[in-house]
Amino acid sequence: TGGVTTIDPGYKNTGSCESAITFLDGEKGILRYRGYSIEELAEKADFLEVAYLLIFGELPTKEQLEKFDKDIKEESHVDEDMKKILDGFPKSAHPMGVLSSLTSALIAFNPGSVDVDSEEAMYNAIVKIMGKFPVLAAWTMRKRKSLPLDYGDNSLGYVENLCKMMFSRPNKAYEANSIVNDALDKLLILHADHEQNCSTSTVRIVGSSHAGLFASLSAGISALWGPLHGGANQAVIEMLEAIKADGGDTAKYIAKAKDKEDPFRLMGFGHRVYKNFDPRAKIIKKSAEEVLGDLGIEDPVLDIAKGLASVALEDEYFVKRKLYPNVDFYSGIIYRALGIPTEMFTVMFALGRLPGWIAQWREMRLRKEPIGRPRQIYVGENYREFVDLEKR
Ligand code: SDX
Predict the structure, then answer these.
(1) Confidence class for position 1, pLDDT limits 50, 70, 90
(2) Does the annotation count 328 as an active-site position?
(3) Is the model's pLDDT at 351 over the cut of 70?
(4) Distance (Å) from CA 80 to ligand 1 centroid
(5) Are 212 and 218 a contacting pair, CB within 8 Å?
(6) CB 233 within 8 A of CB 345
(7) Which of 234, 242, 198, 270 is nearest to 348 (CA)?
(8) Which of 42, 104, 118, 267 has the smallest CB count inside 10 Å?
């Protein structure tokens, strides 16, 4: 056992690294990127600024931001042969599986992006993936909708261009919608980093073997896909729709969650770190009400969500376990109002988390951290002799 005496399932009480990127205080519901509060960043910054802040540690000057934007735009083309890989998927393929595969496939078309040591080589790999990832994400959505793939328009901002690539239609000029752009920009900022969560820890440990940035991100996308992690935003809407179909009987679902025999996870509730409230959920809840109001959308599912949250917050099962709405509880309601299909919700989470994953990978590589290789406590069989097949 290599001297290991205790294990920590799920690393609930294990620190894996020192990091200067994101600060969380679970008791006080504080979230800061490089010392700046997400409340201020969500209000005053745009997503590309926050991406720069997370990756390089400082809010960019105008010149730095313009250069970052220009360098990303110069890398926003994707090799045409990548379309053959996309074509190979059935239309029914989940976009997260497609995105993880395409992100890994990018390595073959960008051989220089396998692991790199110098800051300059890292910068090149970073602007490549920042430019190409939104294209691939939009392609996964268009593939499912049997729409022609769109390359975007470099005269647009980062998030505007993402919207154009997702929502443009072949037979109608694309009209930008500032409500949609602003809502999405804020959502991407709120998802941008979250210290050592499951998918970020995955990116860091895959990167620690020097497998390279794109391979590490591909692994991170797979980890995020799980319904206990980023996949929860899709599971929340599916749950809320089920409750709506069930006549809005939220009490039934609260009771199901407390059923000892077959406990039903109330998706969008609970968090490993936040034990009073998830500051992102507070902002997203308010934004959901504003966006639906601005777009003139009445979504009964928002009322069901609010009803479910208010009942749960009074219920001793949830209060005792400190279960509160998390970032995934309300986000799907906004994505849906913006015209984003449910199966694309976790792709939106990945688009937001991209700069955080990049920042954490870069920090790990610059700090020359050792390969991640934990030990175990062996609880298997002692030595036993081999038994020939005919004697078994
Ligand atoms: C994200 O880590 C991050 O920072 C993640 C994230 C990020 O930005 O990267 O914030 C994004 O992943 C948010 C979480 C999204 N997932 C969900 O909404 C899925 C539902 N939530 C749970 O699965 C759960 O709350 C977790 C995964 C979020 C946290 O799990 P923990 O910390 O391992 O807690 P646990 O599973 O040990 O549960 C503790 C108790 C248990 O009851 P007891 O065994 O003590 O009786 O609380 C219960 C659990 O059964 N519980 C729930 C519940 N979550 C925990 N009961 C009902 N519904 C739930 N959602």
Answers:
(1) low
(2) yes
(3) yes
(4) 41
(5) no
(6) yes
(7) 234
(8) 118
Is the dihedral angle over the CA atoms 43, 353, 292, 305 positive or is it negative? negative
Q: In this structure, which long-range contacts are made by residues 174-180, counting pairs with CB atoms below 8 Å and at least 24 apart in sequence?
A: 179/291, 179/294, 179/295, 180/338, 180/339
The verdict on the CB of residue 267 being under 6 Å from ligand 1 is yes
Establish whether 191 is a catalytic residue: no
Structure tokens at 364: 């790990």
User: Using one digit for the tens of pLDDT, what is the confidence trace for 137-148?
Assistant: 999 999 999 999
CB 140 within 8 A of CB 98: yes
Name the nearest CA neighbour of 263 among 211, 323, 335.
323
pTM, to two decimals: 0.97
Tokens of 167: 């929502």
User: Is 91 within 8 Å of 144 (Cβ atoms)?
Assistant: yes
35: CB partners within 8 A, 6+ apart: 23
Beta bridge partners of 24: 31
Per the residue annotation, which of 81, 271, 303, 388 is the catalytic one? 271
Residue 230 CA: nearest ligand 1 atom is 12
Angstrom CA distances, 113 to 67, 83, 366, stand at: 20, 20, 16
| Residue bearing tokens 């890292």 | 122
What pLDDT shows up at residue 120?
94
Alpha helices in the chain, H assignment, sequence order: 38-44, 47-56, 62-74, 82-87, 95-109, 119-144, 158-167, 178-190, 198-207, 213-225, 232-245, 250-257, 279-295, 300-314, 316-320, 327-337, 345-366
